[in-house]
Amino acid sequence: MLSSTPAVKFTYEDYQHTPDDRRYELLDGELIMAPASNLGHQRIGTQLGWRLAQFVAERGLGEVFFAPCDVVLSNTDVVQPDLLFVSHERAHLLLGGANVLGAPDLVVEILSPSTAGRDRTLKRGLYAKHGVREYWLVDPDARTVMVLRLDGGAFEVVGLYGEGQTMTSPTLEGFTADLNEIFGV
Q1: What is each CA distance from 123 to 16, 115, 128, 173, in whole angstroms?
Q2: Is 9 part of any domain?
Q3: CATH number, domain at 108?
Q4: What DSSP string describes 128-167?
Q5: Comparing C-alpha atoms, which of 79, 137, 68 is closest to residue 104?
Q6: What's the Rg (C-alpha) of the chain?
Q7: What tens digit of pLDDT does each residue of 117-148 get?
Q8: Is 3 a domain residue?
Q9: More exposed terminus of the chain, fewer Cβ within 10 Å: N or C?
Q10: Which are the contacts of 20, defined by CB distance < 8 A and separation ≥ 6?
Q11: What is the C-alpha to C-alpha distance for residues 72 and 69, in angstroms, rounded to an integer?
Q12: Pairing of strands 83-87, 62-66
């Protein structure tokens, strides 16, 4: 007779004991190592992050953080989005000083072959479940940015922007980014 063994779920405490020289995420209790992003991914993150950070700083809206930065959504969900924004209204999430303790206002994931599936499904669901207000999926291959806004507990697509277009954000009113500049066209 076969007995089923319950799956082991790691917790935030377990996660804190992972090696500092490797990047991990904890998704539904599963510890996942995330490889370093390639140079194209880094360039896109730098271009978009710089514009986002400048916009937020000029208007005194809150803070922008770059990966790796732990976002603790629950005891079994710790993510490291490529970029994130925490408004002054959610500044209490930063009081621990070591990481973000809860859902940021905005999360940006730049897709890569090893993470795209999780970013589009599992992480999208986690971000919605925990109350991230806006989620950007940046696709370097398609050269697009999909902007999603939380509505009734689920994300709705509010914009799909491509080369030659200027993206906007419903959460950061007035923010724009020329995608030719972001993707280095």
Answers
A1: 20, 10, 8, 25
A2: no
A3: 3.90.1570.10
A4: HHHT-SEEEEEETTTTEEEEEEEETTEEEEEEEEETT-EE
A5: 79
A6: 17
A7: 899 999 999 999 999 999 999 999 999 999 99
A8: no
A9: N
A10: none
A11: 10
A12: antiparallel
Phi, psi (deg, nearest 5) at residue 89: -65, -25
- 20 secondary structure, DSSP code: T
Q: Is 147 part of a structural domain of the chain?
A: yes
* Residues in the chain, pLDDT under 70: 1-6, 21, 185
Residue 91, amino acid: A
Query: Among 87, 82, 81, 83, which Cα is nearest to 59's?
Result: 87
Amino acid residing at 104:
P
Which residue type occupies 81? Answer: P
Q: Give the whole-angstrom CA distance, residue 141 versus residue 154.
A: 26
Tell how strand 154-162 and strand 144-151 pair up.
antiparallel
pTM of model > 0.85: yes
Tally of CA atoms within 13 A in the half-sphere of 127 that contains its CB: 29
- Which H or E run contains 127? helix 122-130
